[in-house]
Amino acid sequence: MSRRSFFARLLSPRTNNSNLAKPSNSGACQPRTRWYFVVQFFIIVALVLSAVWLLMAIWYQFGTHAPIAWVATVVIVGLLTALLVLRYLPQRLRNTPFIKKLFNNKSFEDDANGSTTLNKGAIYNKSTATKWLAGLYVGVWLLGAGWFMSITPQQQRDWQPDVSQIMSYTRDANNPDLITLSNVRNFDWYSGDEEATERWETRTIDMSKLSGVDVINSYWMGPLIAHTLVSFRFEDDRPLSLSLEIRKEKGESFSALGGFFKRFELSLIAAEERDIIYTRTNARGEQVYLFPVSHLQQHEVKSLFESYLTIADDLNTEPAWYNTLTSNCTNIIFYMARVISGERLPWDYRIWVSGWLPNYLYDIGMLDASPEKSTQPEQSAQPWSMDKWYERTHINPKVRGFNNRDSSDGHSSTFSDQIRQGIPIPPLADSLDEAESKAQSARAVDD
Question: What is the pTM of this model?
Answer without folding.
Answer: 0.79
